[in-house]
Design brief:
The structure holds two protein chains of two kinds.
Chain A lengths: L20 H23 L1 H24 L10 H12 L6 H14 L14 H12 L6 H4 L12 H8 L9 H5 L12 H13 L5 H21 L7 H6 L3 H8 L10 H21 L6 H15 L12
Chain B lengths: L24 E3 L5 E6 L15 E2 L4 E3 L7 E3 L4 E10 L5 E9 L8 H6 L7 H7 L9 H5 L7 E5 L9 H8 L1 H15 L3 E7 L3 H4 L6 E4 L8 H9 L14 E5 H13 L5 E7 L5 E7 L4 H7 L9 E4 L6 E3 L12 E5 L17 H5 L6 H9 L3 H7 L10 H5 L6 H23 L1
Parallel strand pairs in B: 1-13, 8-9, 8-11, 9-10, 12-16
Antiparallel strand pairs in B: 2-7, 3-6, 4-5, 6-7, 12-13, 14-15, 14-16
Helix pairs in contact in B: 5-8, 11-14
The chains are: A mainly alpha, B alpha/beta.
Chain lengths: 319, 429
């Protein structure tokens, strides 16, 4: 019998579970939508503008970088889009266009591509960008000042700033329900606590983010804040404010869980999460910055490779 | 193909099928030509077997001078060619093609030597049954370096989709009983451990042996995991069960031994599962050496450009480049995949999602390991990241979201290390 067909000869396994990076990223984008939608309802077209510009410019930066370095174009995997989306969620609705574009440049190019692209970034690209921008243009990230012209049906106050400048009594007016429903000043997509939690739970169930990191992060924030609060309730706010204000929830479900910059083993994930939560509250309570989540994540990104050395022994390993 | 579940938080559950799913058996008629593959590398100078030599069904064919390697002809006919065949990782085999004659004659050498079941000796098993269906590991029993004190009879199938052992247990339990008794007397190993899936417990209870239940999800039925979970012995990294005195033998191989002594004939038909492009399964019985194309013809399977033919299971099998690749004594399945169903292997890097680490049955840090292997740091991979602990189940590649060929990286690393070690040993010696 003459054999004319050529067959694909490759190696085992011949099955794959069908998971893809693009599906993963589109699911993250989907999970982030509720929080963004509420931001858009509150802040209107400027919020749409910031988020859209952020997503599109992030994709364009990655496209341009791939073209210049003659790499295959990777924008289809959704990674740049997700970076842009989450970056936009952290910004105030009034952020100027140039800030958004500089931010996505820092995130995509400096945060990710120069290290070799997806999977190679030692820090969460979004967090790197926000950290640099927060230090460079402090005023824009002063949410109270930035959103001063908005008159919504709730007090347009950024709880963490109020806490820092006016003490615990300034945040007494915030109920947990208000904080969860986004009735606080803050980033476009970082105030709607309920939406972020729903998105986070969705991602955990889909197996896209690692629950150990999110839960231990929140536990770290809760316990540290509680300890501070118990030692001096007049100076330090209770854990509820710390959990539901600022970047805590978006940090727990969308920032700290970024694959490449977080550990994968069980115990390291717990240490990483709890450490981030601890540092975040520490910076908030005794540091100079209003919100500590961004810097806490950066610091823990730094120790991530070291943490992942704590690993179970392989079965059969000799000595 | 089993896809990732919506609830990705759970580990993938790849279940071995149950006995009830075993399809009915279809016999393939004797083909016009068969090919037997011997593990011996082709060596023209020392060939014993000559072209045009006539052989009988069940005849043992010694291949080379000063070697006891042999194959057993599954047909009566004339040797039409003896050539070299190259398999995975450049491994060389000797391929013996036999043209089938019209009248079948049965060789009686085995009958005269073997006698009945009671006279079965280790020598006879070793000299005649290495090429029987299921590949009985006959050499291990007489290997002086490996003192085998336990034999594990594996009645469950080790890879997915495969139903051979299940079929044998269902249809030929007497042969298994007979085979076990022969093994006991011939090897003088008394410690025989039966391992079976839950659905086989009832059928196997008639053997009178103690049966251990193996989990019905892949990769529980792989030898290393049976060792750990059932025997409670951990095989050291880089070693095989036989290195610590345990020999694995499949139910099919045991039945081959039982049948051989019972009938005075070396079994020559192999039972395997044929999986069509649409995933439908058929149980097929064919002479060892039957080309796959004959089987496809019998089932009206047409293959197109860029399809894939897999010999063995979906996780551990190997793909072949010719439709004429023959059925071997260890071929437990032939899977045909349509070109549209072949999962894409990508050149994306690891994104550190950790799925491989969570799925690894032996706790290897696959993410770190694969980074080293990609860079070619094989020694470091072996020293620091447990390359040799890998039991080659293939689950890491199966779950990899980047579509990396992790399993292949691991296999080629082991191969390369092995090669450089051999070269070093030769240079130093």
């Amino acid at each position: 019998m003459v054999d004319n067909n050529r067959f694909v000869v490759s190696h085992a396994p011949f099955w794959h579970d069908g998971s893809r990076i693009s599906t993963r990223n589109y699911n993250i984008a989907l999970a982030a939508l509720p929080a963004i939608l509420l931001g858009i309802i509150y802040y209107g077209m400027p919020a749409v503008g910031v988020v859209s510009l952020s997503i599109s410019s992030a994709i364009i930066w990655e496209f341009v970088f791939c073209r210049i370095t003659k790499h295959s174009i990777t924008i289809g995997d959704g990674s740049a889009a997700v970076i842009g989306m989450i970056f936009g969620m952290l910004l105030p609705a009034t952020a100027p266009w140039w800030l958004v574009i500089i931010g996505t440049f820092v995130a995509v190019i400096i945060g990710k591509q120069i290290y070799g692209g997806i999977g190679a970034n030692p820090f969460n690209p979004v967090v790197v960008a926000i950290a640099i921008l927060m230090i460079s243009w402090k005023d824009i990230f002063d949410f109270n000042e930035a959103l001063i012209n908005y008159d919504l049906d709730f007090a347009m106050v950024y709880p963490l700033a109020a806490l820092k400048h006016f003490g615990v009594s300034a945040v007494d007016s915030f109920s947990m329900g208000d904080l969860l429903m986004g009735k606080q000043s803050g980033g476009i997509g970082s105030t709607f606590g309920l939406g972020l939690i729903a998105g986070g739970i969705y991602l955990i169930i889909r197996g896209i983010i690692r629950w150990e990191i999110s839960i231990s992060f929140l536990a770290g924030v809760f316990i540290t804040a509680l300890i501070f609060n118990l030692t001096d309730p007049a100076r330090y706010a209770g854990p509820v404010v710390h959990l539901f204000a600022g970047y805590t929830l978006i940090g727990a479900f969308f920032l700290a869980t970024e694959d490449s910059s977080s550990p994968v083993n069980f115990i390291p994930m717990l240490i990483y999460g709890a450490g981030t939560g601890f540092l975040a509250v520490l910076i908030r309570n005794i540091g100079v910055y209003v919100d500590g989540v961004i810097f806490a994540i950066l610091i823990m990104n730094l120790v991530n490779p070291l943490l992942d050395k704590i690993r179970p022994k392989a079965i059969g390993k000799v000595a | 193909m089993i896809k990732r579940s919506f609830i990705g938080l759970l580990k993938p559950r790849l279940e071995y099928g149950s006995v009830a799913e075993t399809p009915s058996l279809k016999q393939i008629p004797t083909p016009k030509e068969i090919t037997l593959l011997s593990n011996c590398p082709f060596d023209k100078k020392n060939l014993l077997l000559k072209k045009k030599e006539t052989v009988k069904t069940g005849q043992k064919l010694l291949l080379y001078k000063e070697s006891d390697e042999y194959v057993v002809s599954s047909v009566t006919g004339q040797v039409s060619s003896i050539s070299s065949y190259t398999g995975d990782f450049g491994r060389s085999y000797t391929a013996i093609a036999i043209e089938v004659a019209d009248d079948e004659e049965i060789d009686d050498e085995f009958k005269s030597v073997a006698g009945g079941s009671k006279d079965a000796s280790l020598e006879t098993i070793k000299n005649f049954l290495a090429f029987a269906p299921g590949n009985p590991p006959v050499k291990l029993f007489s290997d002086k370096d490996k003192s085998i004190d336990t034999i594990v009879v594996c009645c469950a199938d080790s890879d997915l989709l495969i139903t051979t052992n299940r079929h044998v247990v269902k249809s030929d339990i007497d042969a298994i009983k007979n085979g076990i008794n022969i093994l006991k007397t011939a090897t003088k190993v008394n410690d025989i451990i039966m391992v079976a899936s839950q659905s086989q417990m009832h059928e196997l209870s008639t053997t009178g042996e103690k049966i251990n239940q193996v989990n019905d999800t892949y990769p529980s039925a792989l030898p290393h995991l049976i060792m750990k979970d059932i025997l409670g012995k951990v095989v050291p990294a880089g070693k095989n069960p036989e290195d610590i005195g345990v020999c694995f033998i499949s139910a099919e191989a045991v039945a081959s031994i039982g049948n051989a002594f019972n009938s005075g004939q070396i079994p020559i038909t192999k039972t395997f599962t044929l999986v069509n492009k649409d995933g439908s399964k058929s149980l097929v019985s064919a002479r060892i050496g039957t080309p796959a194309s004959d089987i496809f013809k019998a089932f009206n399977i047409t293959l197109n450009e860029n399809d894939r033919i897999i010999f063995g299971g979906p996780m551990k099998g190997s793909s072949v480049y010719s439709e004429d690749h023959p059925v071997q004594p260890d071929t437990d399945a032939i899977i045909v995949q349509d070109k549209d169903d072949i999962p894409v292997i990508s050149d994306y890097p690891c994104i550190n999602c950790g799925d491989c680490i969570r799925v690894c049955p032996v706790n290897i840090q696959v993410g770190m390991l694969v980074r080293l292997l990609e860079g070619g740091y094989y020694e470091e991979a072996a020293d620091q990241y447990d390359l040799y602990s890998c039991i080659e189940c293939g689950l890491c590649s199966y779950v990899c979201v980047s579509g990396m060929p992790i399993f292949q990286y691991i296999r080629s690393a082991k191969y390369e290390l092995d090669r450089s070690n051999t070269a070093e040993a030769t240079n130093n010696g």
